[in-house]
Structures are given as C-alpha cells and as structure tokens.
Design a protein that fits this description.
single chain; alpha+beta; eight-stranded mixed β-sheet; elongated
C-alpha cells in the first residue's frame, strides 16, 4: 500500500504484523504465515510496501523494504547405463527463505505418501514408465530456513526407438518445474500493467551421465531485463552432459508497453528448457571404423610428399636475374616469411581441434546418415588439409633457399588457401542445415582474401622478388649484358641486362 496515493480509510489496512526493535534494527514478523522458519535475521517477510505503526503515540508510516530471500534449486541426475535401456533418475530440491516456508507448510499439511503420488504423476507426464525406487526423504533446517527434498526413481523406457528406424534411439530431459513460470498468455494487446509472480529465483540443473562419449555442442544463453533475468548453459565433460538454467523475477509487474517483449522473451526461454539425445547405431558403427580414415590419410600424405618432391626437383624455372647480384630476403618479404613460419602451427592446431575431421570419423558418419554430398566434401577437406601442410613445408624450404620456383609456389599456396576458405564458408552457410557463421570464421575468410589479393600480385610483379629468388638446382643459360645489344635509351628488353653490374658501360 502506498499511503501518499490513498485517502484516509480504515479499509486501507487489511493485515497486521509485528514490529521488533532490537539493537537499533527493525524486524517485522507476520504471525499469519504458516511453517515459517529461520532465525530472526533469516526469516522471510513479503514486500508489503508501507504500514502504519500503532505505538500509542499517534503512529507513523514505516517502509518495509524489499522482499526477503526466496529461492529454489532443483538438481536432476540421470544415470544411463546403456543406450536403449533404463535410467535412474535422482532429484534433489533445496528450498530457501519463503520457498522453504511454503514447502514446510505443504509437508506439514499433507501425508508424505500423498505428496509422493503427486510427484510421480508430475514426472509421469514425461516418463510414463517411471516408478519409485526409494521413499521420498526430506530434511528441515529450520534455523537456516532451508528445506531439502530428495527423490529416486527408475524409468524403464527412458529411450524410445524411432518408429520408422529401429536403429535410432532418442531420449528427452525437460525442466518441467520451470513451465509454470515461462508459460505466459500470448495476448499482447494490454492497457494495464501485467502482474508477475514475485519474487522468483529458480535454478534448475540437469546432469546426464552418458554410457559413452557423445558429440555435444556447448551453448550459452543470457537474457537480462530490469524485471527478470534468464540464464542457460549447455556443457559437456567426461561423458556427462550438464544443463543449467536460472530464472529470476525482480519486480512485481511489468508495464503494458513491455508485455509483447515479455512474451517473446519467455517463448525463447521455453525453447531452452528441454534437450533431446539421439543415438544412431549405423552412424556409431560407421564412425567406429578407423581404417578408412587412416587409409585416406596415408594416401594423402604419400601423394602430397610425391608431389612436393617432384616440384622440388623438377620445377626449376629460369630466374629473371643471375645469382651474381642476388638480393637478401628483406623489406616486405620479411612479413611474408613470418606469415609462412606461423602457418604450420596454425594448421596443426586446427587439426588437433578437429580430430573427427582428420580421422575420417565425420565423413564416414555422414555417409551413414545418407548425406553423400556433404560427406564427399568433408572427405576432400581431410585430404586438402594434409596436402596443404606438406605443400606449405615445401613453400618454406624454397622461400628460404631463395629458389626461382618460390614465387610461383607461394602464389599457389595463397591462391588455393583463399579458394578453399571461400568454398568452406559457402558450404557452412548454405549446405549445412542449422549452421551459422561465427565471427572467427568470417575473420579467417577476410584474412585469406586479403593475403591472396596482396601477396599474389606482389610475388609476380615485384622487381625485388625477381632479384631475390634467383637460385636454381640446374644451370640455366642466362644472357649477360655483354652478349645483348642495348636499346638506344640505355635499357634492355632482356631481364638479364637489367642485372648488370652498376657502372658497366654497354657497347
């Protein structure tokens, strides 16, 4: 009640609480609350707003302040011994503050067996075959005002076989308790504020202990508004999938103008309250066969080494200048050398981060899923990554030997890398369902395009490059200045003439 907005009236006061002054601090006790627990400082008191103090001295209005603590932490632990089998389902719920008062009152006013039946019906909406393994247990720490409930169940038919494919199994976990908070009326045309269930601080955690390694994409969703917040995280570690969700309400209402946003936010929240695991025996069987991926990798390594050796010994083009006046690696070539030396480490790190790509597990799984087009692309990507790193080693050797073949080899490396990055981005954005480009992917694409656009012309047009990379394995018949007739303006069309010693006079 806000005293400054109402006319004086005896009907404006519909409740009575007790004010305690203790050591200079004020505490308020509501004698009508059932099951209230906690020491004086830990007791919950609602956000009543203001109240008139009746002290025999004329009275004065007191501001009660914000509501006290009220939170629920619900932890589900699923133990899955085998795919296609049953599951053990443990639930631990910790109520604190006002929520502990409500839970305590519920257990005081109802038989434990009746509460157990209601819990079974609640979970049975999702798992019809659920049954109790142990009796429900509860612990009441009245001093700290916490109330803990522990449950254990068995779900015989936790996994469901796909109707049209007996080799595919699925199972679903769902934060059912959050539904009461996230399911809202979608009618957005409001003219009055919308009352919220306040306060709310609900944490829901699900740990799924899987029978084997699983391919899980970690995710995080954060939403923060003045009136409410939402957090969801998907994490995977050591065969355990963890889904953590937290929802809070920090205001008693939202304005009518914000209701449409409120509905959209809660629809998005609801999308992050369930998770489905899928197990396909055909895909797992295909991925477990390592020899096809190893064979492709060995062939790629052998073929790329043969190509590199052929290029090293057979590709030996005639240089533009003689070695007599060869220049050292300097200027812009220093930047190129740094980039070339770093590239093998970046490529090796990429291979380590994508073991399923380099082992062939990914493309074999895609073939088993009936996606031959994408599988073939991934297969070629595995081969390309191996060839690329071997080719890069060749480019490094030729570069620092200042071989005449280095400019062409380095140009090919930058050109092919640019094309492969563009193709990879195209496939990720248009051919893979549900894929979204990440900022890092766009950065790689931009870097590849810029590198190709800058260094390819530089290596083919720079005179400094032509004067630096002049060494060959075989001797070439390069004309000297004395063997060529000079042009009338003192220059020559023959590149070898441009390599003449400074101060030499032409005939």
């Amino acid at each position: 009640m806000c005293a400054n907005k109402l006319l004086p009236s005896a009907y404006g006061f519909d409740h009575c609480v007790v004010e305690i002054n203790l050591e200079g601090k004020r505490f308020y006790i509501d004698p009508t609350r059932s099951g209230q627990g906690g020491k004086l400082k830990a007791q919950y008191f609602p956000a009543f707003g203001e109240g008139l103090v009746l002290n025999g001295q004329g009275g004065a209005f007191a501001l009660f302040g914000a509501a006290g603590e009220a939170s629920i932490t619900e932890i589900h632990t699923y133990t899955l011994p085998a795919v296609g089998g049953e599951a053990t389902f443990d639930v631990k719920t910790v109520y604190q503050g006002a929520e502990a008062d409500l839970a305590r009152a519920q257990f005081a006013g109802n038989a434990v067996d009746e509460i157990q039946k209601n819990y079974l019906k609640f979970y049975g909406n999702l798992y019809p075959s659920i049954e109790k393994v142990e009796p429900l247990k509860y612990t009441d720490d009245r001093g700290e005002n916490t109330f803990t409930v522990e449950e254990r169940y068995r779900v015989a038919e936790f996994w469901k076989a796909k109707e049209d494919d007996a080799d595919v199994f699925t199972c679903t976990v769902y934060a059912q308790s959050l539904e009461q908070y996230l399911s809202v009326n979608k009618f957005a045309q409001r003219t009055a504020p919308y009352a919220l269930n306040y306060p709310v601080d609900y944490s829901h955690v699900m740990h799924i202990q899987l029978p084997e390694e699983w391919n899980v994409e970690e995710d995080r969703v954060d939403m923060e508004r003045k009136e409410y917040t939402f957090f969801h995280a998907t994490k995977y570690s050591e065969n355990t999938l963890s889904l953590t969700t937290n929802y809070t309400v920090q205001a008693p209402y939202i304005e009518a103008a914000e209701y449409e946003r409120f509905v959209q936010d809660h629809q998005k929240m609801a999308e992050n309250t369930s998770y489905t695991l899928t197990y396909d025996k055909k895909i797992v069987s295909a991925a477990s066969r390592t020899w096809p991926g190893m064979l492709v990798g060995l062939l790629a390594v052998g073929g790329s080494i043969a190509l590199v050796l052929w290029l090293y010994y057979r590709y030996d083009p005639k240089p533009a200048y003689t070695t007599d006046y060869a220049e050292q690696i300097s200027g812009w070539l220093v930047l190129v050398s740094i980039g070339l030396m770093i590239s093998p480490f970046l490529l090796a790190n990429s291979m380590v981060e994508q073991p399923e790509l380099m082992s062939g597990e990914l493309w074999m799984s895609l073939f088993a899923m009936g996606r031959p087009g994408l599988a073939t692309f991934i297969l070629f990507e595995q081969v390309y990554n191996i060839v690329q790193i071997v080719f890069l080693i060749l480019a490094l050797v030729l570069f620092f030997q200042r071989r005449s073949s280095a400019p062409r080899i380095v140009s090919i490396f930058y050109g092919v890398s640019c094309f492969a990055t563009i193709l990879d981005a195209f496939v990720a954005n248009f051919l893979i369902e549900g894929a979204a480009a990440e900022p890092g992917d766009n950065n790689d694409l931009i870097r590849a395009i810029i590198a190709a656009a800058v260094w390819i012309p530089y290596f083919n047009m720079s005179d400094h490059v032509k004067r630096t990379f002049v060494f060959t394995l075989r001797e070439h018949d390069i004309e000297t200045p004395s063997e060529t007739t000079a042009l009338s303006d003192g220059t020559s069309e023959d590149p070898a003439i441009r390599a003449e010693e400074p101060g030499t006079t032409q005939a």
